[in-house]
Amino acid sequence: MLETLITSKTRIKLLLKFFLNINNQGYLRSLENEFNESTNGIRQELNRFEQAGLLLAESDGNKKLYRANTLHPLFKDLNSIIRKFIGVEEVIEKVIDRLGNVQRVYLEGMIARGLDSDIIDLMIIGDNIDRNYLSNLVEKAEPLIGRKIRYLVFEKEDAEVYVEKHHKEMVLIFDHSA
Question: Which domain holds residue 10?
Answer without folding.
Answer: 2-68
